Amino acid sequence: MKSRIHFAWQCRLSELGHRTGVSLHSHTSHSKETLDFIPRITSHFALLREALRIYEARYRRIHGRELDYTSAWWTPPLGPREALLVERGQIEEAGLNALVSISDHDNIEAPLLLRVLSEGGEVPISTEWTVPYRGVFLHVGFHNLPRRRAAERMAELSRFTANPQEKELEGLLEWLAEIPETLVVLNHPYWDEKGVGQERHNQVVETFLFRYRRYIHALELNGLRPWSENRQTMGLASARRIPLISGGDRHGSEPNALINLSHGRSFDEFVAEVREDGYSVVAVMPQYREPLTLRVILAIGDVMRDNDSHTHGWRKWSDRVFYQREGGEAESLSAIWARSKEPTLVKQFVAISRLMEHRRVKAGLRQLFPPVQEFS
Question: At what angle do helices 344-355 and 292-303 cross, to 10 degrees?
Fold first, then answer.
């Protein structure tokens, strides 16, 4: 096992002896993302925090229940082609050939669309699979699924997510891992997405790896998780003798903050380096040094920005945010607000998110939020 980490601000990536940069794990407008980030972000701003408290109390009074942020979702601002160009651009600017694997949540729509374009013909078919497992959510990246049966395999994965039966999990993982050209990655293993408590989450991760280690080819260092958490992943990889791999987890317009370096000319050759040789070189890009909270806020600003040239014609940011009504039907916020008034809280949130685009505001926020911990 030969996993190494390089920091892009300490050396030129093109001088390290690799021909290729590999962008793994990024999202497009084909991903659904819940709005549960809103309470976390507003906690940093007193005005928004108080406004949200009032709005939640009003919602409770009118509807007799808590406001459920998971019943609404947003989609990332970049379409498949735009996402591909952003990721390729960063790697090519570093003087390397680019391979890009886009892995939206629980679907393969973006890579299938890209593969009909001249510039996307070699894009691997990939996804980030949501795995409900013993009370937590785990996320497994499948990169480079075979074209002929990709839709069939995705359908089986989606069926499990909708109705998880643990007895079926090993068969599914074995079914995917047996494909020599496919890379299976446990993404951000220490992220307690479900909020069950870090200790409980970690126990489940240990159990998962104990049972299914033979089907996992790498553990992910994640570009949107704290360095302290990534260090934990390094320790887990060392203890389990699993290669480390990068995963940028891009949701906005900022390119992946972690990428891989490879000697391979194709994605198949890159997969072989990791699977057969245990060889993986992760490059930490300069944007990872920015305070994580600031990066998340700026990504939210990307989401809240209107875009006249949006891939799906969703020009307004509110065209890309959806709410599921009690009957099960989904509507965009634009459609809902066509019948009612846009809430003042939302207007305030949008105004603040757009302020973040100004250089002086960014500079001030860098002082407000803690920087990334020292790298080691």
Answer: 120
Burial 240-262 (b: 16+ CB within 10 A, else e): eebbbbbbbbbbbbbbbbbbbbb
* pTM, to two decimals: 0.91
Q: How far apart are CA 334 and CA 343, in angstroms?
A: 12
**DSSP string for 5-17:** EEETTTS-GGGSS
DSSP 307: -
pLDDT at 82 over 90: yes
Question: What is the pairing mode between strands 321-324 and 72-74?
Answer: antiparallel
Comparing CA positions, the residue from 66, 67, 130, 117 lying closest to residue 88 is 117
Beta strands in the chain (DSSP E): 2-7, 20-24, 33-34, 72-74, 97-101, 125-133, 136-145, 183-187, 218-222, 244-247, 258-262, 279-284, 321-324, 330-332
Q: How far apart are CA 371 and CA 181, in angstroms?
A: 38
Phi-psi region of 64 (alpha: psi -120 to 50; beta: other; left: phi over 0): left
Beta-strand runs (E) in 134-256: 136-145, 183-187, 218-222, 244-247
| Domain positions in the chain | 2-31+76-287, 40-66+293-368
289 DSSP 8-state letter: G
* Residues 228-261: tens digit of each pLDDT: 999 999 999 999 999 999 999 999 999 999 999 9
**Given this structure, which CATH class describes domain 2-31+76-287?**
alpha beta
Residue 307: phi and psi, rounded to 5, are -150, 105
Residue 315 β-bridge partners: none
DSSP E strands, 190-277: 218-222, 244-247, 258-262
Nearest to 79 by CA among 123, 28, 117: 28
343-374: pLDDT as tens digits: 776 777 777 777 777 777 777 777 777 766 56
Lowest mean pLDDT among 48-57, 327-336, 338-347, 366-375: 366-375
